[in-house]
Specification:
The chain is an alpha/beta fold. Helices cover 29% and strands 25% of the residues. The chain has 2 domains: 1-323, Rossmann fold (3-Layer(aba) Sandwich), CATH 3.40.50.12780; 329-426, ANL, C-terminal domain (GMP Synthetase, Chain A, domain 3, 2-Layer Sandwich). It is globular, with a radius of gyration of 22 Å. It starts with 10 loop residues before the first helix and ends with a strand. Bound molecules: 5'-O-[hydroxy(phenylacetyl)phosphoryl]adenosine. 5'-O-[hydroxy(phenylacetyl)phosphoryl]adenosine binds at residues 89, 132, 137-139, 209-212, 231-236, 240-241, 299, 301, 322, 325.
């Protein structure tokens, strides 16, 4: 089932719509956002030169630094009185990125989130326990808007309160849980401790996002909670959750709602646009946003696009699960590694819990990397063997040998109950 016919429209019709919408948004930002007027003029482009998405590569990209430099509202395209809501995403450094929504933007958000929930298999008669944080973070309210649009029943519990989460999952019988992948696993662990078998409950779907989730992590979620795990992607600067989502039927790539958000993949070094099937940085252009439209926004997220047909019938382009960000890249003694590559490698080893941490140190001018893994509760072998297997697997899969591998007891890696999980600890500064 699809929520909106646009999801299955022909690619030609979709392209016509995108072309028209791009012309409109370029005109709007040219007229209303001095930053974009200057950027476009510098590139020798007037709105009349843009006839469609084929012209996008000529348009300069927008970066996170551009947003920070114009904090808080320098990229807004409407006067304050037209804003209905503000969200902000806290970066690791400096000022947060502030985003403003008009009534029209909130309607768009409701729409793409309703589509997303339907793609995940949620229906109007279901209950959704929403364990994304409410507040400035877009996760909680984004899912909430979508449930409301779909007319499903939302339980706005937000992040944390694990005891209450488990109690409600049992007593209210929610069919869907929405939360980060790390929190889904955290809930599973706490449920196991309390002797609650989540597989016995009506819960059948977890819509996870806001953090990368590798295949072994997804398998752990699906198995421990007895659910179908559906990956949802989005970012505050573009709308929040609801830019793209997997369909429950195929769970094979995320359908990008490209009538609203036009995706491109670029080489992060040269900004050259890469063809379908090649991995690079995702760049998004909002085609209808009013409050804070963005042209060619560099998300920092690494992925691949592909356009072959999907068994669910949706015709949209799909993107691979985001497994890394350009700024997550670890450069250790000349070796380039994404934490997600390390995750996928170690979590695939039997006897290891889906938990780990990566610590970077500097000793005598040299970078050192230490990996900590956690022994599974049901592993009764020798921890030394486990350590050995982790080392060998990292070496054979990634040609990488960490300076140290630590194996800790079950529960030995500190868990995080709220927010986005932190797994890399850089002590080098
Ligand atoms: O995390 C929006 C969101 C909320 C998405 C709930 C899904 C579910 P921000 O806080 O602005 O917005 O962070 C956006 O989080 O650029 C990615 O690096 C990362 N991210 C979001 N979804 C995924 C995902 C929300 N499914 C940043 N897989 C993005 C991997 C994700 N990374």
């Amino acid at each position: 089932m699809v929520w909106n016919d646009i999801e299955t429209t022909s690619r030609d019709d979709l392209r016509q719509l995108q072309d028209k919408r791009l012309q409109d948004v370029v005109t709007r930002v040219y007229e209303n956002v001095p930053f974009y007027a200057d950027r476009l003029k510098e590139a020798g482009i007037t709105p009349g030169d843009v006839t469609g998405v084929a012209d996008l590569p000529a348009i300069p990209t927008t970066t996170k630094e551009d947003l920070r430099d114009h904090y808080p509202d320098g990229l807004f395209a409407v006067p304050d009185e037209q804003l209905r809501c503000i969200h902000a995403s806290s970066g690791t450094t400096g000022k947060p990125k502030v985003v403003g929504y008009t009534r029209g933007d909130l309607d768009t958000w409701r729409e793409v989130m309703a589509r997303s929930l339907v793609a995940a298999g949620v229906t109007e008669d279901q209950t959704v326990q929403n364990a994304y944080g409410y507040g400035l973070f877009t996760g909680g309210l984004g899912v909430h808007h979508g449930c409301d649009e779909l007319r499903a029943t939302v339980v706005p519990i937000g992040g944390g309160q694990t005891h209450r989460q488990l109690e409600f999952l049992q007593d209210l019988g929610s069919e869907t849980l929405t939360c980060t992948p790390s929190y889904a696993l955290y809930l599973a662990e706490r449920a196991e401790e309390r002797g609650i078998d989540l597989k016995d409950l009506p819960l059948s779907t977890v819509v996870f996002g806001a953090e990368p989730c590798t295949d072994p992590m997804r398998e752990a979620i699906e198995e421990r909670l007895g659910v179908t795990g559906v990956d949802i992607y989005g970012l505050s600067e573009v709308i929040g959750p609801g830019v793209a989502i997997e369909c429950a039927e195929a769970q094979d790539g995320l359908h990008v709602w490209e009538d609203q958000f036009y995706p491109e993949i670029i080489d992060p070094e040269t900004e050259e646009v890469l063809p379908d099937g090649e991995e690079g940085e995702l760049v998004l252009t909002t085609l209808t946003k009013e409050g804070m439209p963005v042209l060619r926004y560099r998300t920092g997220d690494m992925t691949t696009l592909y356009r072959d047909s999907c068994e669910c019938g949706r015709t949209t382009v799909r993107m691979d699960n985001v497994t890394g960000r350009t700024d997550d890249l670890l450069v250790v003694r000349g070796v380039n590694l994404y934490p997600s590559e390390i995750e996928a490698t170690i979590l695939d080893i039997e006897g290891v819990e889906p938990q780990y941490r990566i610590d970077l140190h500097r000793a005598a001018e040299l970078d050192e990397i230490e990996i900590t893994v956690e022994q599974a509760a049901d592993y009764d072998g020798d921890p030394e063997d486990l350590r050995d297997r982790v080392r060998k697997r990292l070496d054979s899969r990634l040609a990488f040998s960490p300076d140290d591998v630590r194996v800790v007891e079950p529960g030995g890696i500190e868990r995080q109950e709220t927010g986005k999980v932190k797994r890399v600890f850089d002590h080098r500064q």
